[in-house]
């Protein structure tokens, strides 16, 4: 399961509606972005509530993910629809969708293209959107083109480590890339491994290589008796000072 699939499942299982695929931030490769449907309930309160989303964010962090939620629709759905129409008319057959987040007078626009947008086309689109938003007496804070590349989930990382352990971070990165995953950077992989170490799923050896903990092996379906080859291997690693 990819990171996007794992996060999407977490969000939808909580009853939150995604209005676009979960994406990776273009500026912070370790952060994901979830566009969610917001609405005004019968009491005049916007849902999902900020406290609820904060708890959901904490659940994602417990799984090793950093995620931000962007509310779409709600009281600003007309503006969002107009932004989408402007973008699709400016770049026909290129723009899949647009999402708008408004805080006070500041507007952030997220562009989901069907294909890579050239720098020149992006500049034309940005000017038109800026003109439209300023005509409504708002200010553009930023126009963002997120990435939805296939980054490996925690499960994919653990599966590879289990197969190759003890294994270094660079080998894990190369191995997952060979399997078709997109690993943004060595920093991204190091941060993921550190999160898994803090979560008790991997141990870091003195030579810098990684192996799974007993808890991780059990979670992944290893037999729970002392004769398990994986468990014997893990005990040996622990004795060597992992």
What is the beta-strand fraction? 15-25%
Structural class: alpha/beta
Helix content: 40-55%
Unreliable residue runs: 222-229
Largest sheet: 4 strands, mixed
* Count of DSSP strands: 9
Order of helices and strands: HEEEHEHEEHEHHHEEHH
Figure out the total of helices. 9
Overall radius of gyration: 22 Å
Q: What is the 3D form? A: globular
How many domain units? 2
Taking the alpha carbons of the first and last residues, their distance comes to 28 Å
Indicate the mean pLDDT: 81
Give a summary of the structure in a few sentences.
44% of the residues lie in helices and 21% in strands. By secondary structure, it is of the alpha/beta class. The radius of gyration is 22 Å and the shape is globular.
Topology:
Elements: H1 3-13, E1 23-24, E2 31-40, E3 46-47, H2 50-62, E4 66-73, H3 77-90, E5 95-103, E6 106-113, H4 119-135, E7 139-144, H5 154-164, H6 169-178, H7 186-198, E8 202-204, E9 210-212, H8 214-219, H9 229-239
Which tags fit this structure?
single chain, 242 residues, alpha/beta, Arc Repressor Mutant, subunit A, 4-stranded mixed β-sheet, 3-stranded mixed β-sheet, 9 helices, 9 strands, 21% strand
Describe it for me?
- The structure is a single chain.
- The protein is of the alpha/beta class.
- It folds into two domains: 3-144, no CATH class; 154-239, Orthogonal Bundle (Arc Repressor Mutant, subunit A).
- It has nine helices and nine strands.
- It has helices at 3-13, 50-62, 77-90, 119-135, 154-164, 169-178, 186-198, 214-219, 229-239; strands at 23-24, 31-40, 46-47, 66-73, 95-103, 106-113, 139-144, 202-204, 210-212.
- A hairpin with a 6-residue loop joins strand 1 (23-24) and strand 2 (31-40).
- Helix 3 packs antiparallel against helix 4 and helix 6 (169-178) crosses helix 7.
- Residues 222-229 have low confidence and may be disordered.
């Amino acid at each position: 399961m990819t990171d996007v699939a794992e996060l999407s499942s977490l969000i939808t299982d909580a009853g939150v509606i995604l209005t676009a695929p979960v994406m990776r931030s273009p500026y912070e490769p370790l952060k994901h972005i979830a566009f969610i449907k917001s609405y005004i309930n019968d009491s005049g309160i916007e849902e999902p509530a900020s406290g609820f989303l904060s708890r959901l964010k904490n659940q994602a962090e417990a799984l090793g993910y950093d995620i931000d939620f962007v509310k779409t629709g709600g009281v600003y759905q007309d503006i969002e629809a107009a932004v989408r129409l402007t973008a699709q008319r400016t770049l026909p057959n290129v723009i899949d969708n647009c999402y708008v987040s408004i805080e006070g007078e500041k507007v952030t626009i997220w562009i989901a293209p069907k294909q890579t947008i050239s720098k020149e086309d992006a500049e034309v689109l940005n000017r038109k959107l800026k003109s439209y938003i300023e005509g409504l007496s708002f200010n553009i804070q930023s126009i963002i083109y997120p990435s939805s590349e296939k980054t490996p989930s925690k499960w994919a990382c653990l599966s590879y480590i289990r197969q190759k352990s003890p294994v270094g971070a660079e080998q894990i990165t190369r191995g997952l890339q060979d399997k078709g995953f997109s690993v943004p950077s060595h920093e991204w992989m190091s941060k993921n491994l550190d999160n898994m170490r803090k979560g008790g799923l991997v141990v870091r050896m003195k030579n810098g290589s990684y192996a799974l903990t007993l808890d991780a092996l059990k979670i992944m379906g290893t037999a729970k008796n002392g004769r398990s080859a994986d468990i014997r291997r893990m005990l040996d690693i622990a004795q060597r000072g992992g």
